[in-house]
Every structure is written in structure tokens, then in C-alpha cells.
Design a protein that fits this description.
Strand content: 5-15%
Structural class: alpha/beta
Order of helices and strands: EHEEEEEHEHEHEEEHHHHHHHHHH
Mean pLDDT: 90
Shape: globular
Radius of gyration: 22 Å
Number of helices: 14
Length: 323
């Protein structure tokens, strides 16, 4: 959604729905537009739902939405939001890529909700842009598109591109658009209708603080886990983590057992395997490359650890995600 809009009202927004799209992100983007129309008592926005073939699309939660048009029936839009979910690039066929390029050449502002930026990036439409995605998908995106600048922000609003982290962040982004277009008072009124506590800025955190996620405020433990999360591709030794956290290795062991009911080694391994699982389901990287990106020195060692943790091989996990 562009920074400024000087066209006629209502401002039209297209939503491209792809199979397994995030229903939460979609509704979080649409509902503020509807409420803004109602509160202002005039049509400030309208929206149209698009699918590749014009047929209904099923979201990741199993609910199916009717769409208004196929991509072949839409030749011009001021704004298009690409709504996707798991394995987004699986849906990027040549006709869709060509359509996105034609819209871009016609001046359409393109953006992604949740994982929508995977498709825009694969289509070559994010060069020179800065984008954000859901925190869970950011590592996979950075591995797949290392040349594209990313952020951990809730949303990004540029001149010709926009993106958000999905979920409630889509609401925050649209509220910001409403504020820029029609004033902060309307945005606040819409937010209150949604029982949304406040207007979050783009640089609010996507995730809870690490202390809240861990359920402890022990500074040494929080620092140790933060070090692990920052060093997944090239894991640190436990002695190094203990030293940087200001404790002995024995004290580190006790902290993990007392607060997290596990050992530092198991916690660290679970973090790396969790990253690997996301890369398997959200990218087309080969298994060996994924293992190396998660700190394993060989394919067999990665496959063995993955099977012991998840009860299936990396290739089985990838096949299961595609079903």
C-alpha cells in the first residue's frame, strides 16, 4: 500500500489468494478497511478477491473463500496484496509471474502478507527493496534470497512495495495506511472498534521478549539462549556460550535444567533442527545445504539428528509438507 494516494475514492485493493494462504492475515488486513468505511460513512476503500483460475481458494485453516476474478480478468489495480502461507513458491507458475510483471509495469503497488514476499522475490520484483515477513519465515527467506534486504519490523511501507509479518501485523499495517490517508483519529477509532489496544508502529517487536518466551528473567540464561539463536549456522561451543554469558559450564547446565528442564546441548540442537524444519517446508534448498545452514557438518549427521528428533527423515518431512 503506497505511502500516498491521490486517486479517486474508493481506493481499490486487490488480494491475490493462493492455496493455504493465512486467513488470519487476510482478515486482519480487510476488516480495518471495512470499519473505516463504516465509521467515515463513505466508501474510502473497496477490495476484490483474486485467484489464479477464478475458483475458490482454501486457506491453511481449511476454510474456503469465493473469489471475484481470475488473474486473466484483472489488467489494472492500484494495489495488490499477495496472500500466501506454507510453501509459497510452489504456486509461482509462468502465467502468474507474467501477470505480476504486467501489473508492476502498469504502476500497481505490490506487497506481501505473511509469506507473500517469497513469490514477489522469486518473480524478481523486490530488487532494491526492504521487506519483512513472519519471524518464522525470515530465516528461510534470507537463505533463499540473500541479496534482498530484510527487517524484523512488523511491516514495511515503501513507494512501490509493502510487506508485513502476517497475523495481527497486517492490521497494524493497514491502520498505518488509514492514518496516513485519512488521519490518525480515524485510525484510532478503527483500532478501538477492533479492540486493538494501540496503534503499533512498524518497529514494534514481532515476538515476545526472550525472557517472556522462556518464562524466566534470569539474565545469564536469557543471554545464553540469545547466543544460541544468533549462532545456528555456525554453532558456538558450550564452553564459549558459558563464558560469554558470565557463568561456568557447570552453572550453565544447572540453569537449563532448573528453568527449562533440559540440557544446553539438547536445547541448542532443538533450535537448529527447528530452523531446518522450516527451511525444508518453505524453501527448495537441497537437504545437504539445509543441514549445513543449520550447523551440521555432513548430510548423514543432519539426517540422523533430524530423524531422532522428529521421527522421520528430512526428505519425509518435506514430502509430508507438500501433501
Amino acid at each position: 500500500m503506497r505511502l500516498e494516494y491521490h486517486g479517486p475514492l474508493p481506493e481499490s485493493v486487490g488480494f491475490l489468494l493462493l492455496p493455504c494462504f493465512s486467513m488470519m492475515a487476510f482478515f486482519a488486513a480487510v476488516e480495518p478497511l471495512r470499519i473505516a468505511n463504516r465509521i467515515s460513512d463513505r466508501p474510502l476503500f473497496d477490495w476484490t478477491l483474486i485467484s489464479v483460475d477464478g475458483e475458490p481458494v482454501t486457506a491453511s485453516n481449511g476454510m474456503t473463500l469465493l473469489t471475484d476474478h481470475s488473474i486473466h480478468q484483472v489488467n489494472h489495480l492500484p494495489t495488490l496484496a499477495v496472500c500466501s502461507g506454507f510453501a509459497p513458491e510452489a504456486h509461482l507458475a509462468r502465467p502468474l509471474m507474467g501477470w505480476l510483471h504486467r501489473l508492476d509495469q502498469a504502476g500497481c503497488v505490490l506487497g506481501g502478507l505473511d509469506t507473500g514476499c517469497f513469490l514477489l522475490a522469486a518473480a524478481g520484483l523486490l530488487k532494491g527493496e526492504r521487506v519483512t515477513l513472519h519471524w518464522e519465515s525470515l530465516p528461510a527467506f534470507r537463505e533463499r534470497f540473500p541479496a534482498i534486504q530484510t527487517s524484523d519490523e512488523l511491516f514495511e511501507l515503501g513507494e512501490r512495495r509493502f510487506s508485513c509479518a502476517g497475523g495481527a501485523a497486517a492490521m497494524d499495517m493497514v491502520l498505518e495506511v488509514i492514518a496516513r490517508r485519512h488521519g490518525s483519529r480515524l485510525a484510532i477509532d478503527v483500532s478501538e472498534q477492533l479492540i486493538h489496544e494501540r496503534l503499533r508502529s512498524r518497529n514494534d517487536q514481532q515476538r515476545m521478549t526472550l525472557a517472556r518466551r522462556l518464562g524466566t528473567h534470569n539474565r545469564r540464561l536469557v543471554e545464553a539462549v540469545a547466543l544460541m539463536e544468533r549462532h545456528l549456522e555456525t554453532p558456538l561451543g558450550l564452553s564459549d556460550i558459558a563464558r560469554r554469558s558470565g557463568v561456568s559450564q557447570r552453572q550453565l547446565q544447572r540453569l537449563f535444567e532448573q528453568h527449562l528442564a533440559t540440557s544446553p546441548r539438547r536445547w541448542y540442537l532443538a533450535l537448529r533442527l527447528g530452523r531446518a524444519q522450516h527451511l525444508l517446508t518453505e524453501t527448495d534448498m537441497d537437504v545437504l545445504s539445509i543441514g549445513l545452514a543449520c550447523g551440521f557438518t555432513s548430510g548423514p549427521s543432519f539426517s540422523r539428528a533430524f530423524r531422532e528428533h522428529y521421527g522421520q527423515s528430512p526428505r519425509e518431512a518435506r514430502r509430508g509438507a507438500g501433501e
